[in-house]
Amino acid sequence: MSDLLERLRGRGWRLTAQRRVVAEVLDGDHVHLTADEVHARAAERLPEISRATVYNTLGELVSLGEVLEVSTDRRAMRYDPNAHHPHQHLVCAKCGTVRDVHPAGDPLADLPDNERFGFTVSDVEVTYRGICPNCA
Amino acid sequence: MSDLLERLRGRGWRLTAQRRVVAEVLDGDHVHLTADEVHARAAERLPEISRATVYNTLGELVSLGEVLEVSTDRRAMRYDPNAHHPHQHLVCAKCGTVRDVHPAGDPLADLPDNERFGFTVSDVEVTYRGICPNCA
DNA sequence: GGGTCATATTGGATTCGATCCAAGTCAAGA
DNA sequence: TCTTGACTTGGATCGAATCCAATATGACCC
């Protein structure tokens, strides 16, 4: 993740303690934390960090393409640091657990021209739902 | 949509003026209204209908499988009466317009067993994003 | 038609996630 | 070290959705 910090610095990001901590919190494999969870973990290291800053930083990381926003339910948005490896999500309908998955095929290619209605289609998002082994 | 009302009556639904109006509002082709929009349209016919009742009724229709909930952005949930014909959604990233689309292939079948992690996968939801002709 | 009762409706309060804002703080270049 | 524009803060605010106790009403029975 220090790569990430370097990359952002190169783009003129001012490196603050708060941003560093948020980036470190996200630097786990396969985490899909809510903003509040990110805030809680960040606050363990930097007790005074505010929610607003966590939201700001997450928003910046998203628009820089370093983190993905995924909305798996009607509750809180989740933040996925695995932005540089295309993947989709498998969500447990009971406990909300999220796993990264890699379906075969290219869903974008599966949308024929006559089903695009003149849209310039740039992105597709696939969410699988089911029951995880723990909840079954 | 009177089919719908009959079907629901058969399941013990008590048929009230409010529920009838909500069902009628949803009885349009390819509409993807928010709860507030449903409420506004319902209120044209039945001025005293409350938001709470609209939410209740929509929730019931969803759990009865007669209407689909689609969350196309981080804003309000949308309600899709086209529940009996499998389809996916194409969303304009600018204006939010939603169109029903029918991609080729079966995304469920595209998720291999070794990518299911023991989940019982029951459903998949595909959202295409792009820019519509009007916004381009 | 009238009575009964379980179910539905109401609107105001409440929750929860997210955003906004003005005031204070601080990283980084000179 | 100084300066400055960008960053952070926490409290207010917003918007969607849910909850609740009081009231109203559809459906069934006679």
UniProtKB/TrEMBL annotation, chains A, B:
The keyword Transport is assigned to this record: no
CDD domains according to UniProt: Fur_like
Superkingdom to which the source organism belongs: Bacteria
Family, per entry: Belongs to the Fur family.
Name of the protein in its database record: Fur family transcriptional regulator
Organism: Streptomyces pathocidini
Keywords: DNA-binding, Repressor, Transcription, Transcription regulation, Zinc
